[in-house]
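Readers outside the structure-tokenisation community will struggle with the description of the input data as it stands. What matters is that the chain and its backbone geometry are given together, residue for residue. For illustration, here is how one protein appears when written out as sequence plus structure tokens:

…
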Amino acid sequence: MSVINVPVTKVNNADCLETSDALAIEEPMEIRLEYKVDDELKNQSVSVTMRTPGNDAELAAGFLFTEGIVGSAGDIANIDHCFIACAENKENVIQVKLKEGIAPDLKNTGRNFYTTSSCGVCGKGSIDAIRTVGSFIVQNEDLISADSELLYTLPDILLGHQRIFGETGGLHASALFSLDGELLLVREDVGRHNALDKLIGAALKQGILPLDNHILLLSGRASFELVQKAVMAGIKIIAAVGAPSSLAVELAAEFNVTLAGFLRNRRFNIYTAGRRILFPVHEGSN
């Protein structure tokens, strides 16, 4: 269940109405890793994130991949809720079992992550710990492009597929489009980073990484963490309805990612690698 109805008093000037309101559910989810080191079975909690229930396995897979803890879907043997070993909150604990011989890369996770719904990098010790190096080398990346007229249409397409946002008005979304504007995947969550991890986790499961021939649309602002996760998935074009942060622009430039912000009402700003966005040629222009 992703939505709950609660009693509310709606005030309009001096008029009050006792009714109910739909809210997006926010609950903690713990990600646990199970793996072997020198024939010794290890069970380790690596993250607690505040999220909207749903697509939990994708969220766990996407988080582990975008944080560089696992290198591919092939590292994972099984992902499921911890129904057997967990006495309480079974639906809020995800157990990720790695394949025999696979050890997770935990060098940047000496302490457990605690991730709020608003910030996916809170508590990390330094920029070096979160500047995860992308695992994909994209060939012919300068041949990748998107039409400006197509970009204008994407926010409305996404809005039409934000089911929970339509009920609550309180969720972020990440959407994956083809370069021709076909909507391929949408994931929602109270945390913008969780929505993107769910999206990348779904793509990881489908075996379609790297996502270089795609456009990532973010329903809100573009933060450093979201650009970092996109880089990990090989994405080269990011468009956001909201503003980017200074560090997001810096990271996009570093990894040659096209980053556009304020995409709405047939307007947007291009911050990095603008050559990938194509504009119509008007008569009389050079």
